[in-house]
Amino acid sequence: SPTVLSPEWDQAYTKAEAALAKLTLEEKVQLATAPCIGNTVAISSIHFPGLCLQDSALGVRNTQGNSAFPAGINVAATFNRTLMRQRGVAMGQEFRGKGVHVQLGPDMNMMRAPAAGRAWEGFGGDPYLSGESAYETILGIQSQGVQAVAKHFLNNEQEHSRMWSSSNVDDRTQHEIYLHPFLRSVQANVAAVMCSYINGTYACENNGTLRGYLKDEMGFRGCTYLSIRPTHWVATHSTGSASAGLDMTMPGDVFPGSIVSYFGASLVHAVTSGDIPESVVDDMATLILAGWYLLGQDLNYPEVSLGPTGPDVQGDHASLIRTIGAASTVLLKNHNHTLPLSAPQSIAVIGSGAGPNPSGPNACVDRSCDVGTLGMGWGSGTANYPYLVTPLDAIQARAKVDGSSVSSSLSDSDLNAAAKAAKGASIAFVFITADSGEQSYDVEGNWGDRNDLQAWHNGDALVESVARVNNNTVVVVNAVGPVIVESWVNNPNVTGLVWSGLPGQEAGKFQMYSIISYGNALVDVLYGDYNPSGRLPYTIGKKISDYAAQVDYTLLVATVEIPYSEGLFIDYRHFDAVGILPRFEFGFGLSYTTFDYSALNISGLPLVDCPYTPGPGSSLDPCLHEEVISVNFTLRNNGTSGGHETPQLYLSPPLAANSPPYILKGFDSVFLVPGESRIVSFTLSRYSLSIWNVVTQRWEIPKGTTGVGVGASSRDRRLVGSMVL
């Protein structure tokens, strides 16, 4: 549909097609074949310098003078579109400053299984939250002239057997859960998409996903490719993948390390022998060049400078990282207003997670260890830390100003030392961790995916040993996802629980901006300099079996079938549907103040389904995305301190729709001073109200009464209404 094509892409295509006319077949193929990881070759005839493609989704990997941003899961926990966008802008500035054309991120695979190894790179357990996070991140990155990459398309939700597993997903679930973040990415004009492996067919050869879903239905006009590391993952399996919709492979070895590519000379031969039309290669080359032109990279783009003499590109990003770190910190328990602190007489700091890695924060390749403060998981989704000052250092610095004494024990195994340090302290902080990452590393017996949802390093015993001797114990969790806390969360001596997640380099940063001004994200929250506003981007259950889906740990060289039999019911949708009480629900988080919700009003246009025809660009049809319903209410800070509230909108489709009982369709982050009120508005499009009809292959609004709930979490819906559609 021409109505959905952006003028920016039109202009880029015009330039790309003009350049294409100057290329030989071999040069066109060179565009689509990277002889190494991270770079394509230059083509002098069109003044094309080659593309530099570089990880990761949280900062420039394998370089120096860069920032280590909070992970995607923490950005999602802010529920704050402004911070999502600003992080994207800052990352784009750093990638551009290093001369990198393509940032291999963001990751938007769903946290289907809570132990999934790379789920922390993405945005959690809800497709709407993931979609908004991806959209804002991409707009931010590409505002700086850097190509963003939406990955991994599609259904790359675990690490075990990822090179030879088949994710088998029904059509409705695919559309409503797993495709949605990619649709939002296309709406953000994302330049490129990275593929994976699905439904019995290699994803980079899957015509149904690459051409059917992505290029036809969603109208994606950019480049689809695979960045392939021979020892990590293999998803290009034939030269024929070019005909299925794959536009670039890196390096696409016939077998790892063979140097012989499925593209390159093999693709040239396939064209000259008539097996593949040259028009396919023309399309591939045009798409690759169009992304380059789309972002204006043909004009005065910096040269690649990732080496040791390259520029320092951090700028003032530490301030933003600290803000996101604080905004993503989730306060889960605060008995008797233990927090915020006010110059306590004495503080105990317990656990290795509060201290340093003795060998340095970058000592383990790709952060493939859990030693000291945990600011990110491991694997290709990481970046080097420019620094990582520990929470212990930051707490000691603040305590020095306040006149508080600090005792510490950084051993996770010496429970006697932990108890000795904590006994008699006014407050004891216990730091526990849980780590995960890419399957290319075995970290403490965990091959990418976590083996379970328990705290690492005997964390439960550490908490219990401290709580036995200190009746004001606060647990701080740095983790990649949910951790089971049942053994101690109801202990009356555990008065606080703070979920810090993966905050990046500012996990323990201390800076003196004025006499008593501190830059540590965690300390900002603990001392009330920042009122906690983070909300859980996933559900914390009471046991791992509470979740609908689990990692399949099958170890086979043959294809491992992974049925997504839970369908639409992942994370909180499953808990709600089957009546399981979570420990902490999706969207939950406490504040140091309180908020009142009132005066719900629902208004809108008479609704009919859009008259669009399924086909190219149909999921981008303007009618489908027209805002037709407004949901307004009044939010008031009725507490004693200023802070952000995170109101959330949930819809309950008619029973006949066979949908989850509550579905997130809106959120905001609203700052209010004490006594201040504000009218908050959410808008809903026809797409927001629709379900995917697998028979008609259309988005359709289910007929009947749709419930509307507004509140502070998925289970704290304070205002309830309905609309008949």
Question: Summed up, what is this model?
Answer:
The chain is of the alpha/beta class and 725 residues long. The protein has 18 helices and 29 strands.
Topology record:
Layout: H1 7-20, H2 25-32, E1 53-54, H3 72-77, H4 81-97, E2 102-103, H5 127-142, E3 147-153, E4 165-168, H6 171-178, H7 180-187, E5 192-195, E6 197-198, E7 201-202, H8 207-217, E8 223-227, H9 241-244, E9 248-250, H10 265-272, H11 278-294, H12 317-327, E10 330-334, E11 346-350, H13 391-402, E12 405-409, H14 415-422, E13 427-434, E14 442-443, E15 446-447, H15 459-467, E16 473-479, E17 494-499, H16 521-526, E18 560-563, H17 572-578, E19 595-604, E20 627-637, E21 643-645, E22 648-652, E23 663-667, E24 670-672, E25 677-685, H18 686-689, E26 691-693, E27 698-700, E28 705-713, E29 716-724
Parallel strand pairs: 1-2, 2-3, 3-5, 4-18, 5-8, 8-9, 11-12, 11-13, 13-16, 16-17
Antiparallel strand pairs: 6-7, 10-17, 14-15, 19-20, 20-25, 21-24, 22-23, 22-28, 26-27, 28-29
Intertermini distance = 27 Å
Strand order of the largest sheet: 1-2-3-5-8-9
What's the CATH class of the largest domain, please?
Answer: Alpha Beta
What fold name goes in the CATH topology slot of the largest domain? Rossmann fold
Query: What is the mean pLDDT?
Result: 91
Explained architecture:
With 725 residues, the protein is of the alpha/beta class. The chain has 3 domains: 203 residues, Glycoside hydrolase, family 3, N-terminal domain (TIM Barrel), CATH 3.20.20.300; 222 residues, 3-Layer(aba) Sandwich (Rossmann fold), CATH 3.40.50.1700; 132 residues, Immunoglobulin-like. Helix content is 24%, strand content 20%. The protein has a 6-stranded parallel β-sheet with strand order 1-2-3-5-8-9. A 6-stranded mixed β-sheet has the order 10-17-16-13-11-12, sandwiched between helices. Strand 11, helix 13 and strand 12 form a beta-alpha-beta unit. Helix 1 crosses helix 11 and helix 2 packs across helix 11. The two termini are 27 Å apart. About 4% of the residues have low confidence.
